[in-house]
Amino acid sequence: MRVISGEYGGRVFRPPADKWPTRPTTDISKEGLFNILQNLISFDQVDFLDLFGGTGSHCYEMISRGCVSVDYVDRHRPAVNYVKSISEEWGFDDRITIHSMDVFKYIKTCTRRYDYIFAGPPYPLKRIPEIPELIFKHQLLATDGLFILEHNQDHDFGSDERFWQLRKYGGTYFSFFQH
Questions:
Q1: What is the C-alpha separation between 75 and 90, in angstroms, rounded?
Q2: I need a labelling partner for 38 at 20 to 30 A (CA). Which of 46, 63, 152, 167 fits?
Q3: pLDDT at residue 9, as a whole number
Q4: What is the DSSP string of 73-89?
């Protein structure tokens, strides 16, 4: 896995994820997503939330592109420890806040508003359909913010009034939501 662009562009990270319950976003789909994002957000002006953060790949990309406020949430302790070690090794531990907890508990207790929220839950998670509603119900997304949910073909969010667009990269689907 690698960081695509910015300050840390080209850096490779190899999480010891053989038996982790994570499914990292592929480089191809991540690159496609960030090509879209570069036209939608100013990386150096957003507060970013990464739900089901896993290996931290989206956090590294956001920080590399200038994002100064990054919150990472995951409950899998080895993943959390890995992200902590990368943030210290690469020297951006002052730009990331790591929350080792259940995403659904974080959503319910969070009082911050974010300009960009990315959620990449495990595809077998039965609660995926609830995530957009919870994000908006608990007002985590700023008024002009963007929420992107990664999922597979088993989910269709087109009827959600906040749904904006869908992008597909092979078996990876990104549903975009706005107020």
A1: 22
A2: 152
A3: 93
A4: EE--HHHHHHHHHHHHH
Mark the ranges of the chain whose per-residue pLDDT is less than 70: 17-26
Identity at 108, one-letter amino acid code: K
Tell me which residue has tokens 């706005």.
178
User: Kind and range of the H or E element at 56?
Assistant: none
Tell me: do 146 and 95 sit in the same domain. Answer: no
CA–CA dist 47, 160 (Å, integer): 24
Asked if 115 contacts 144 with a C-beta cutoff of 8 angstroms, the reply is: yes
Provide the residue range defining the domain that includes 142. 116-179
Sheet with strand 141-151: strands edge to edge: 96-100, 69-74, 47-51, 114-119, 141-151, 172-177, 163-169
**Model's pTM, two decimal places?**
0.94
| pLDDT score at 23 | 56
Q: Which amino acid is at 3?
A: V
- Amino acid found at 81: N
| 94 and 130 together in one domain | no
Looking at residue 95, the DSSP 8-state letter turns out to be S
